[in-house]
Amino acid sequence: MSRILVIVLSLFCANSYAQNVIKGIVLEQSTQTPIPYATVYAPEIETGTVTDEKGEFTLELSKGTHKLIFSYIGFQTQSLNISVPTDNYISIELLKSAMEMEEVIISTPFHKLQSDNVMKVEQKKIKDLKASGALTLAEGITTIAGVESVSTGNSIGKPVIRGLSSNRVLVYTQGVRLENQQYGDEHGLGINDAGIESVEVIKGPASLLYGSDALGGVLYLNPERFAGMDQSATDASINYFSNTKGYNTNAGYKTSSNGFKFLFRGSLTEHSDYETADYRVTNTRYREQDFKAGLGYQASKFKTELRYNINSSKLGLTEGIGIQSTDRTPLQPYQQIDNHIFSSKSTVFFDDSSLDITLGYIYNNRKEFEDHDHSHDAGDDDDDDHDHDHDDEHDDFDDHDDEHEDELEHLDAALNMKLATFNYDIKYNLPTLGKFETIVGVQGMHQTNANYGEEILIPDATTNDFGVLATSHVHFETIDIQLGARYDFRSIAIENNTDKTFNSFNGALGFKTDIFKNFTTRLNFATGFRAPNLAELASDGSHEGTNRYEIGDINLTNEQNFQIDLALEYKNEHIELFANAFYNKVNDYIFLNPNGDFINDDPVFLYEQENASLYGGEFGLHLHPHPIHWLHLESSFETVTGQLDNDDYLPLIPANSLTNTLRVEFDTKAIKQINAFTTLRSTFAQNNVNTFETTSEAYNLLSVGIGGTFNVFNNDMNVSVSATNLLNTKYIHHLSRLKTDGILNMGRNVNVGVTYTL
Predict the structure, then answer these.
(1) What whole-number distance in Å separates Cα of residue 264 and Cα of residue 755?
(2) How many degrees, rounded to 5, is the angle at CA 45 between CA 39 and CA 47?
(3) Could you give all domains of the chain from N- to C-terminal order, each with its CATH number?
(4) Average pLDDT, the chain
(5) What are phi and psi of 25, to 5 degrees?
(6) CA dist., res. 154 & res. 56, Å (int)
(7) Short-list 616, 613, 615, 594, CA closest to 605
């Protein structure tokens, strides 16, 4: 029997590692001349090659169906599905284009180029977001049209997609659903941009793909790739920010050999209180430490990767303008957050199908320390002396950081919540049947919330989710159709309260077609849902971060929405025009409303439900004039309006804005990848506000930047300099949670960054 087993395993291994050679050529469409050094890449199995001087390539692939991506700078990226083995000689023709090369979209199920995708998905490289001078990932994503951020100073920001935020926007990182007590306005992402390659944004309901909480959209963070086969790389970077006297550093190493892959990256970030034209905003300082590691293995029929991320941060919570200092250790009140993310992604390849298995475990420990835990009153001699040091001379920046940090380590947290989440996502990619690509899958989550502090805002509870889905992409000669359906069930067992269950059926239908040459239309219809979260169902206490007493309603029901998206796009070699419009009807929208009472001097807010509507869109152009190939002119306008059925406006709806950018890109013999930009962002007044909001004035922000890559000791060194709010404009963003206190947003900031790659 053992001999038979050995023979069977040997045959299996031989079949698993059997490779088939494919050959082809990449040509320029208009002249039929070969394109040397073009990239040929198979994203599913993460392998590829480049064409030789004659434009020809040879690639080894296992038996089955593979997607190949062909790309080269200055040409439109193309994709091709091939069945292996094949004796056909592949000939691909690329069309010249001044626009950026396309990447494969990961957040949608069929992993297509955006030009082939039925859904409209925005994708941005993290390096491009950082080049704009953003301090954080949450700030960087606001450069994407239709995306904003609810912010508390610089350290806390949560995404807003077309007016919807909090639990209505789902965040994915390392391929798993991020759970970090995201129901709160002052609860940020808890993710550092180090070790993240790109961000993708799905605008609109994505419950078909992701279940509850994707009612408003998805922010999908793609981790950095492993090193190529038998390659290794090391890099380190440092960025300095003049406004906060702050910095962030990160260093990473990755290598690949014999099918095994390994990487790690560590980063440290520290900022003092940010400065406006008139003052520093006390206790907006913060410190963040981040470490990421990954281990992968790949064979011809199987690939797997394990990733781990620990993010630890101390975030100051400002209570107004007070001590003027550039110390970096937070004062009270502050949050201390530890977020652990474990993820496992595996794919088994069959001859004409594949199975994807993704598992995740997220452990979030959120602590909040308040003034009454460690008094800063005049009666406390140590703290009184500490305060007088700053009051006597605001420009005295002598460090008390070590002493103050020792004091903070011995405090007991007023709020101490531990959230543990296990989630799974299993999808089977069925064999292609004629014009149909089909995926079926199951997703689920088991989550426990536990309190250990003296204050309890939301009770201990256990949540279980289960969902089943099916979706297909249908290819016709002139039109592509994507459709699907899904069923979800959620149960919440609340300690000392009523257990609750929620369920929902959802579906999506989309069309993509080229009306005429270079003109693409996408029309999508989708439903989404969101089950009430623990805070909305069962909160009963003072929420210190928001200075209000919140009372939940155990009888709340699902939010259910229906959205129509229309995307029009015209693109040729030198110009791109786009118009994206949407209408979103949300039934039983959950919102907070003050009832006029006070408890413990905090106003009482109740969770209520009413139908709501949101509508608007994003419109813009990208001009690359001929023959000035190094010049780019980009302009975009975004607008959203949100109202309840009683005609009250929804809270936290972004103001309309217009962004204009002039950008240049070119290479020289001494410096390659030179890029420079000037951006003027005009934000209009927001007068359509909720009854307990105030209006916001219009303002303009000017930003500039320049960067390039030098060869230093035979390695690349990238240097960039940028300035945001160059004119030191005084303004208050409508989605700033410091707006109620009249506190200005950050003034002028100069960022200098250096990255060295070995």
Answers:
(1) 17
(2) 35
(3) 2-96 (2.60.40.1120), 182-757 (2.40.170.20)
(4) 87
(5) -145, 145
(6) 50
(7) 594
